[in-house]
Design a protein that fits this description.
The protein has one domain (3-224): TIM Barrel (Alpha-Beta Barrel). The protein has helices at 20-33, 53-67, 82-95, 112-123, 136-139, 145-152, 167-176, 190-195, 206-221, 225-245, 247-256, 274-287, and strands spanning 3-7, 38-41, 72-76, 99-103, 130-134, 157-162, 181-184, 200-203. Helix content is 50%, strand content 13%. The protein binds 2,4,6,7,8,9-hexahydroxy-5-methylcarboxamido nonanoic acid (HMN).
Length: 289
């Protein structure tokens, strides 16, 4: 379960339906071209919070069918509707997903007892493992070292996807829980996290930049920091361009230049203007050769 995991995009058509051929191509591109170690399915990048339960299940099915056992698969099942989260956890487990993940419950200001109950309820309902998805900038949920420790007391909770720029907390977590899996969640900070000895990374930009991310991670593990820094610099030039132009839309346009029918993003995400499509194509020409 270690290494570089792409937070998989999902291809949607203009009506917002799953574009199955495009989704299969996305899976193949990540496995065959970028050669990543695994896929993180139905995360933020998969536009999970914009789609129906039925579509979430269909995406889990298509991805497992296409990927088989070629790479590790993590199913993000987190939902404010805990019944949906449990239903998805059971569904993905039955399909053979290697682990589950769930975003911390957001919007309402849940206290820690409620958050702990949410994770234990989901994971104790299935024969699988859980990776906490912590992304305070989007959820408003900040957990302390001690609170992570309390969640980790459940042996089925095997790790955390740490999407925060708090390297002090990251170092403390690494030190306190050497046996748990820690994944870096911000692609632009991959090297800094790798130096702190995380077990892997999960990211959206790996859909187009997976090979470089693998190299950064490997170089850091070998202690070749200068070379890794060079690659992180190129990576961050690319990420800056993507973020300035529209994150998920730009990645989809870049993928189209690689022959992947990545479709469009679902509303309320807007489509790129013609000018921005051109910027995405220029980024692809510059960074994906
Ligand atoms: C997911 O749930 O899809 C990803 O794991 C999220 C991942 O951490 C990404 N975060 C968001 O998109 C909010 C990052 O890869 C991020 O897109 C990237 O570092 C650019 O900022």
């Amino acid at each position: 379960m270690k290494g570089i995991f792409t937070a998989l995009m999902c291809a949607f058509d203009e009506q917002g339906n799953i574009h199955e051929k495009g989704l299969r191509q996305l899976v193949r591109h990540n496995i065959d071209v970028s050669k990543v170690d695994g896929l993180y399915v139905n995360g933020s990048t998969g536009e999970n919070f914009l789609i129906s339960t039925e579509n979430k299940k269909r995406i889990f099915e298509i991805v497992k069918d296409e990927a088989g056992d070629q790479v590790k698969l993590i199913a993000q099942v987190g939902s404010l509707n805990i019944d949906e989260a449990v239903e998805l956890a059971q569904f993905a487990t039955d399909l053979g997903y290697d682990s589950l993940s769930a975003v911390t419950p957001f919007y309402y200001k849940f206290d820690f007892e409620e958050i702990k109950d949410y994770y234990n309820t989901i994971i104790n309902s299935v024969d699988n493992t859980m990776i906490i998805y912590s992304i305070p900038a989007l959820t408003g949920v900040n957990m302390s070292l001690e609170q992570f420790g309390e969640l980790f007391e459940n042996e089925k909770i095997i790790g955390v996807k740490f999407t925060a720029p708090d390297f002090y907390l990251l170092e403390r977590l690494r030190h306190a829980y050497p046996e748990k899996l820690i994944y870096s969640g911000f692609d632009e900070m991959l090297l800094s996290a790798a130096v702190l000895n995380v077990d892997g990374a999960i990211g959206s930009t790996f859909n187009v930049n997976g090979a470089r991310a693998r190299s950064i991670f490997q170089l850091a593990q070998e202690g070749k920091i200068e070379e890794a820094r060079e690659l992180q610099k190129v990576t961050n030039d690319l990420i800056s361009g993507i973020l300035a132009n529209g994150l998920y839309q730009t990645i989809k346009e870049m993928l189209k230049t690689q022959g992947v029918e990545a479709g469009v993003c679902r509303k309320p995400m807007k489509q790129l203007s013609a000018d921005k499509v051109k910027v995405a194509q220029e980024l692809a020409a510059k960074f994906l050769s």
